[in-house]
Amino acid sequence: MNLGLIGTPLGHSYSQRWFERMFRRERIGDATYRLYPMASVEGIREWVSAEAMDGFNVTIPYKEEIIHYLDDMDPTARAIGAVNCVKVEQGRLTGYNTDAQAFLETLKPHLMPWHDHALILGSGGAAKAVQYALDQLGIEATMVSREPQKTKRLTRVVSYAEAAELMATHRLLVNATPVGMYPHADNSPWAYPEGWTPQHLCYDLVYNPLPTLLMRQAAEMGARTLGGLRMLCRQAELSWKIFR
Ligand code: NAP
Predict the structure, then answer these.
(1) Half-sphere exposure for 144 (CA within 13 Å, toward CB)
(2) How confident is the model at residue 20 (pLDDT cuts 50, 70, 90)?
(3) Is the pLDDT of residue 114 over 80?
(4) Does ligand 1 come within 6 angstroms of the Cβ of 85?
(5) Which positions ≥6 away from 178 have C-beta within 8 Å?
(6) Centre of ligand 1 from the C-alpha of residue 112, in Å
(7) How far apart (Å, rounded) are the C-alpha atoms in residues 152 and 30?
């Protein structure tokens, strides 16, 4: 079985290691999982045939663009508007989203009653999956974008300056941008570290490095923090259930 990950950059990714370890543990000898850095997804269907791919994961920045090249989509992925897992069957490409379920499951045990409003940093594929999961949990989410006017959404999207004003009442903050990710570990997506309190929960989807600068700044003010590693492993497990 030929599996892999497409996206760019991929230097931060642990997915290959996760799958190879799982193949060894489960004694699966006929499967490979490789990283395929891609500057564009335009030739994705030709690549699928040439590499005889059976399935692949999709990461930054293609979780939305990949949709144009699929034959079908699972209803959840369609509702989210982003795909991170594609299964290939007889040349047909079907898109799934395992990020939302993985995020929901890893967040849920840490939620407190006062986490009823959330800020999601970013407006890309991961942010859409997070928004869908928060909706399932009954948490009201506001997306935060560098250019809120460009995002044509029905839901609320605000600027970073506006989000800083909301921080006191929005005590769950999720980073769904790549800011702070290897090799740019000195960066933080959030310029208002004085706003964190012990009631805040900071969930950074970035998992390399751990902790991120965002998590360290939140923890310094007493906030609880979660990194993206558990979510990464869970979305990979859920992807494997789809691939096999
Ligand atoms: P994406 O589709 O490219 O979206 C990222 C969003 O972040 C963009 O839409 C943009 O929103 C914002 N952004 C990008 N560059 C930025 C910058 N320099 N400063 C501030 N904001 C910036 O990427 P994605 O697929 O959603 O992934 C986002 C991150 O989540 C990546 O680091 C990825 O590895 C991580 N992730 C982790 C897991 C996990 O399992 N742990 C799962 C999914 C994703 P605006 O233009 O609106 O500001």
Answers:
(1) 22
(2) very high
(3) yes
(4) no
(5) 60, 206
(6) 26
(7) 44
125 in contact with ligand 1, CB cutoff 6 A: yes
pLDDT of residue 152: 67
The CB of 146 under 6 Å from ligand 1? The reply is yes
Residue 153: band (very low, low, confident or very high) from pLDDT cuts 50, 70, 90: low
67: which 2 tokens? 């949709």
User: Beta strands 85-89 and 72-73: pairing type?
Assistant: unpaired
Pairwise CA distance, residues 127 & 188, whole Å = 17
For residue range 116-129, what is the model confidence (pLDDT) as tens digits? 999 999 999 999 99
Active-site annotation holds for 63:
yes
Would you say the CB of residue 59 lies under 6 angstroms from ligand 1?
Answer: yes
Q: Which helix (H) or strand (E) holds 80?
A: helix 75-80
Q: Is the CB of 184 under 6 A from ligand 1?
A: no
* pTM (predicted TM-score): 0.97
Is the CA virtual torsion 73, 61, 167, 199 positive or negative? Answer: positive
pLDDT > 90 fraction of the chain, expressed in percent and rounded: 96
Q: How far is the CA of 29 from the centre of ligand 1 (A)?
A: 34
CA distances from 109 to 153, 176, 223, 224, 233 (A): 29, 20, 16, 12, 16
- Cα–Cα distance for residue pair 44/48, rounded to 1 Å: 6
Whether the pLDDT of residue 150 is over 90: the answer is: no
> Residue 200 — φ and ψ, nearest 5°?
-80, 150
Catalytic pick among 63, 87, 152, 241: 63
Best mutation site among 101, 177, 235 for ligand 1 pocket (most ligand atoms within 8 Å of CB)? 177
